[in-house]
User: What shape does this take?
Amino acid sequence: MKMFLISDNNDTKTGLRLAGIEGVVAHKREEVMSALTNALNDRDIGIILLTEKLMDLVYEEVMNIKLRRDYPLIVEIPDRHGTMRDTDKITKYIREAIGLKI
Assistant: This one.
């Protein structure tokens, strides 16, 4: 099983390439969707890594893929600048799911 990266910058791609993970750099929504489709069609890829900025471009499509397919796993990762998300993301999910502030 291989991992595959779809990144918005070369630095992230280079860093993960040093760890043995192949990938592509994309900037436009169409480029991301094309790379995602190619990765989904490759049965050797078990995990697709997608940077946060690109996830924002194709969020609905990725959520539909996650709901309809068991394989591969799609994981959102921060780029070299760090995360753009809330620091308390898990607590936010729990609060939304059960309606209680913890």
Remarks:
- The beta strands are 2-7, 22-25, 45-51, 73-77.
- The longest strand covers residues 45-51.
- Residues 29-41 form the longest helix (13 residues).
- The chain has one domain: 2-98.
